[in-house]
Each structure stands twice: as structure tokens, then as C-alpha cells.
Amino acid sequence: MVKVLKFGGSSLADADQFKKVAAIIKAEPERRYVVASAPGKRFSNDIKVTDMLYDCYKLVKKNQPIDDAFALIEERYNGIIKDLGMKLWLQPEFDRIKNAIVHHAGRDYIASRGEYLNSIVLANYIGYDFIDAEDGIFFKENGTLDTEKTNDELTAILEKHEHAVIPGFYGVMPNGTIKTFSRGGSDITGSIVARAIKADIYENWTDVSGMLMADPRCVENPNVIPTITYSELRELSYMGATVMHEDAIFPVREMGIPINIRNTNSPEDSGTMIVSSVESNKVDTVITGVAGKKGFSVIAIEKDMMNSEIGFGRNVLEILENYNLCFEHLPSGIDTMSVIVNDNDFLPHKDAIVNEIKRRTKADSVTVNGGIALIAVVGRGMAGSKGTASRLFKAIAENDINIKMIDQGSSELNIIVGVSEDDYIKALNAIYHEFVK
Ligand code: ASP
To answer: What local confidence, expressed as pLDDT, does residue 284 receive?
Structure first.
């Protein structure tokens, strides 16, 4: 049995956090490969080392000295080393990195040094080998991951080490320069390592005890989701519920390796298990979670006899396509068609789009209703369980909320409702409390 663990920035922000991490790793002999983030925030207005490194990059760009900014970074690591009582001397590493930054090293190289240095510290502290991500994670010329090469070479390297720490967040381009994933990308490294070593589980250690059934800023004290499938996770993440980097799902999903979201500050909590499928008898609640987003508009189009006009829908969608706009949902009636779009992309072109739809489709009316919030009610337990929709709509109606749009995916995995943004919080609570008693 092999477990791959990834620790986020807050889990490795100071010496006390390092001690918790070491205890977690040592608690099970299967915890053999560890992916580390850069030191994150110790308190709410603290600065992550990754951001401090980006600041150094900006200073060099403006031809300003980085001595003070870089000294703060050295201080972060030296503080951790000293408080852990270690005898690690990182000065030659600091000097080399500082010199590279001053001589205009690439932005990604600079940002990646947070993970690089933190992994050296962690590897030394727990007595694991250090494997540099630049030796095993490869990008293609076009900037996407070279999956095959990475898998082959990383597997070969990992197999040579019984235990190792690998820095998250970066890999190497074909020309040898360092490239990072997007922010939060250490999650992806963890997933890639788990796939390469064919891990039995990928434990993603963070500062929450798993994924919550609803946003705690909207619903008071929501329950943790014990088990969620990759597909459900995707539906909820699309609506803004985040627990890890979205791209971290794919490498392990392919191999059916489960991800376990765990809390470094509360290791006894079992967290959330993300799996490919769950036997139906294991469904705990009809819904797995509820998530939503504000900032949508409905373009409502009406035209007599629309239903028999071939190509009507295509015309409308082609206009959106010309403005590089995705549509979110497309509920329609006999002589009406509604297109739900995201305000950020739509509002800058609103008048032009409405006019073009009118002109091209000769619609009787085209109106735009803004201020819509979309709520996704997600749950594998909804398929085949009768009465979910009626419970959902009744709960919303009893709270005096007007539903502006309904859409149920054919997979029966989710029901989307559109409500006025003013009713958003009320609707989320009505839905959550209907299904979670
Ligand atoms: N340190 C990087 C960031 O702050 C990557 C990570 O933590 O996953 O985005």
C-alpha cells in the first residue's frame, strides 16, 4: 500500500505546522511520498512566500533592489529551521536564487523557489529524500503537461526512493526552463505523483476538514461531505465550491485513485473522500451538496411559431459564438427561448447582442433580465429517488422565493434553479435545510 500526501501552504507555514505534518506522515508507514507547497499564511493578513517571490520579480522588472524583500523570504525559512531546532544551512541556496532573480530569471522559476526550498526543509526534517520536480515533471512546448514522459520518468525516479519529498507547483519545459502550474498548482503535482507511483490513495492535507455541503459564508455551519464522486465534484466546483485545484482531478481520476481531503489541524477527522463511483446503498443524503453563483442574465426571446422555424436556435447561438460567449443554460418553451449567460462576458456586448438577435431572428421581443443567481443542487442520490424535485421546489416556494429558471441535467445528477440575486442566500438555506435535518 502506498499513500501520496500533499500539504498546502497553511499546513507548512511555520515550525508548529511542520511538527503536525511530520506527525501525520510518521503515523503510517504507507505515507511514503509527500508533495509540499511553499509556506503560506500564518495569520489572515500574512503574505504567502509565493507572493513574496512574485514581488521580487516585480521589483527587478522596475529596476528596484530586492534586498529587503528577499531578506524577508530568508527570514521565513530560517525561522522555521531555527524553531524546529534543525542544523540546516540554506544560505548557498538563498544566494544562488537571489542572484538568479537579480539577473532577470523567469517569473515561473522565481515563483517555484518557494516550493523548492520548503521541500528541502521538510525532507531534512523528516529524513526523507528530496526529489526535484524539474527532474520528473515535464511540460510540452505548448505549455501543457507531457503526460507520457512525466509518467515514465517520474515512476522510474520514485521507484528508486523508498521515501521522498517532492516540491509542488512546477516542472520543466523542453528547453530546461522552469514552468509553474497556475496558482494552487501543488494539488496537481500531488495528483501526478500519485498516478506515477500508482498510489492507493492521494491524501490532500489542507486547513479544512473536507468539502462542505454548502458555502459556510451563506449557510451556518454546514456538514462536511463524507463521500463525493468526481462528477459531483465537478458540478459543485463549476458553481464555485472549491476545495482543490480543478486540474488535480484528472490524473488520479484516470487511474481511479481516490482523493481524501484532510485537515492538518484536525487529523482525526476523516475528511472528504472523492471517488469515481459509490454503490447506491452508500448514499448518505439525497443531495451531496448545494452551490451557487450570482452574476447571470437571462436573454428571453419570443417569436410566434418559433417552434417550427428550423435553425432558429443555431442563429441565436452563432451570434453568441461571434462574441466569444458561452451559454450556461438554454431552457425553452414552444415559442420562447431563454439563454442564460454570465454577466462578466455578456454585459460589455449586451446592446450589440440584443440588436443582432432582433435583426437576425426577427423575434417579436428580446428582453434581458439581469441580477440572476444560479444554484446547483447536486447529488447522485437524486437519480432514481422520486420526489426530490418536488421537495426542492416546495422548500423554495415556502420561503416565498420566485424561481426564474429550472434546468435538470439528463444525468439526474443536478438540478439548477435560477433565482433573483436578492433571494440567493434565502434559497440556499431553504434548500440545504430541506435536505439536511
Ligand atoms: N504556492 C503556490 C501558490 O501559492 C502553489 C500552491 O500552493 O499550490 O499558488
So the answer is: 66
| Rg of the chain, C-alpha, whole Å | 25
Q: Where in the chain is the domain with CATH 3.30.2130.10?
A: 289-435
In angstroms, the CA 428 to CA 16 distance is 37
Confidence (pTM):
0.89
Whole-angstrom distance, CA of residue 224 vs CA of residue 208: 10
Q: Does domain 289-435 have CATH number 3.30.2130.10?
A: yes
316 backbone dihedrals φ, ψ, rounded to 5°: -65, -45
Q: Are 204 and 187 in contact (CB under 8 A)?
A: yes
Pocket test of ligand 1: the residue of 5, 115, 187, 243 to mutate, having most ligand atoms within 8 Å of its CB, is 115
What percentage of the chain reaches a pLDDT higher than 90? 88
Contact 137, 147 (CB under 8 A): no
CATH of domain 3-277: 3.40.1160.10
- Evaluate: CB of 184 within 6 angstroms of ligand 1: yes
Q: Is the CB of 48 under 6 A from ligand 1?
A: yes
CA of 85 to the centre of ligand 1 (A): 26
Give the count of beta carbons closer than 10 Å to the beta carbon of residue 138.
22
Q: Is 283's pLDDT higher than 70?
A: no
